[in-house]
Amino acid sequence: METKVGIIGAGPAGLLLSHLLHLNGIDSILLEKKSREEVEETVRAGVLEQGAINLLNETGLGSRMMKYGHLHHGIEIQYNNQRFLLNFEELIGKKIMVYPQHEVLKDLIAARMKANGKIIFQANVTSLKDIDSSKPKIEFEVDGEKQELICDFIAGCDGYHGPSRKALPKELLREIEHVYPFGWLGILAEAPISNEVLIYTYHERGFALISTRSPEIQRYYLQVNPNDQLSQWPDERIWSELHARVDLNGWTVQEGPIIQKDIVKMRSFVCETMQYGRLFLAGDAAHIVPPTGAKGMNLAMGDAQVLAIGLQHYYTTGNEQILNKYEKIRLESIWRAQRFSRLMTDLLHHNNKKTSFEQKIQFAELNYVTTTVTGATTIAENYTDISVNLPAELQKNLTAIKS
Ligand code: FAD
Ligand code: DHB
To answer: How far apart are CA 238 and CA 93, in angstroms?
Structure first.
């Protein structure tokens, strides 16, 4: 099998890249180890930044999102039994979209199918070969049968555990990791909507987040010990913690049957080596952020955008200039998103290892972002629009890939 761009992984990074390449007449084949149903059903992220909303709309992917997604004008931050609205629209004229990641993936897969795009599901990539040559190869298995895909470029969009990053020469790896002493227990509940906008709550019992999926399904998160098991969190304990952390006089978290639960450990990770030869890493394969800043899916889409621009430029001019800048361009956004995700994590989680000085600073910070225009504006700018953006020099190339 042969193609121009071999893409590994049908997450937001891989699927968006294949869509953008298709808009520019560049062939790709996407290999995904899960089934289409599994990809379309896995519950993960929920928030899209302004740049991601625009990109989906401008590349023909926005109609279901605009119909079923929820545009939010801001978020609320709660601490010490007080709730503050940070109105992003009023502060900076930007909004966010609450639209589940698996719905974005459904839209992308439908668009690729409509265009006769080639996605091979249940194709498990086992190794990457000759990545420093002009004809790299991907070895994969379908139904136990070994196959090979020969391409010009490989896009490793296979998440943190995928094989792409492992194919980079060890001596060239520049990896940086930071582990937080927190986990998030996430649930989906069949309940009516609790609040018009997301509520990020600091409480001495731990952080809590009120989000939504639809008028009938709600998404809630609780800070837990990263080593906790789901068996330690029966439904009654979850509800009692949510009420204890978020309820205010006259306002209560809406309850209903819990239909899904998961626990994630929180960490920051960046593999700064995002390119080697003809292999490019994108999305979680290269970086992980703690979820408090809602950046992971957005960063994956930002990577796909720049990679698509670089490949489009290469196939029209034969010049690898933009591709060679991919790593540098994306690391700027990635580190800004890491900074913001860490700031939000530190601001909103309870850490009983903090000294009283550090705890006082945390409250001063909460006070600053909720009661001053400057503090709130900083949150607004970072929350709504840092992951999917381009240096001015690439703006004209963006117009080219969207047309
Ligand atoms: P993935 O979505 O992980 O896709 C990688 C794909 O590669 C997978 O489908 C996998 O099956 C496939 N793959 C792996 N190995 C192989 C192989 N050997 N062969 C073939 N295929 C392979 N982000 C936000 O922006 N906003 C949020 O609000 C947000 N909230 C989150 C909440 C939680 C609880 C979690 C866990 C994450 C959240 N994120 C959020 C992060 C976001 O979900 C991820 O950053 C995003 O999925 C990354 O996309 P990706 O395309 O890089 O990788
Ligand atoms: C959601 C997840 C996040 O990590 C976040 O910061 C906000 C919302 C969500 O899943 O809805």
So the answer is: 36
Per-residue burial over 97-130, b if 16 or more Cβ lie within 10 Å, else e, is bbbbbbbbbbbbbebbeeeebbbbbebebeebee
pLDDT tens per residue across span 205-219: 999 999 999 899 999
Ligand 2: residue of 86, 198, 266 to mutate (most ligand atoms within 8 A of CB) is 198
The percent helix, strand, coil of the chain (3-state, each to 5) is 40, 30, 30
pLDDT score of 403: 58
Q: What is the DSSP letter of 167?
A: G
Answer for the pair 137, 149: CB distance below 8 angstroms, yes or no: yes
Q: Compute the residue count for the chain.
A: 403
Q: pTM for the complete prediction?
A: 0.96
Question: Does the active-site annotation cover 291?
Answer: yes
Question: For 132, phi and psi rounded to 5 degrees?
Answer: -95, 10
Ligand 1 pocket at CB < 6 A: 8-14, 31-34, 39, 44-47, 101, 124-125, 157-159, 162-163, 184, 186, 264, 283-284, 291, 294-298, 300
Distance 80 CA to ligand 1 centre (A): 34
Mean pLDDT of the chain: 96
SS3 364: helix
For the beta carbon of residue 33, count every other beta carbon within 10 angstroms: 22
- Evaluate: CB of 294 within 6 angstroms of ligand 2: yes
- pLDDT grade, residue 174 (50/70/90)? very high
3-class secondary structure, 208: strand
Catalytic residue among 72, 94, 137, 287: 72
Respond yes or no: is residue 200 known to be catalytic: yes
Q: Which residue lies with its CA nearest to atom 23 of ligand 1?
A: 296
Q: Is 315 a catalytic residue?
A: no
278-297 mean pLDDT: 97
Q: Sheet containing 145-150: which strands, arranged edge to edge?
A: 123-129, 137-142, 145-150
pLDDT score at 277:
96
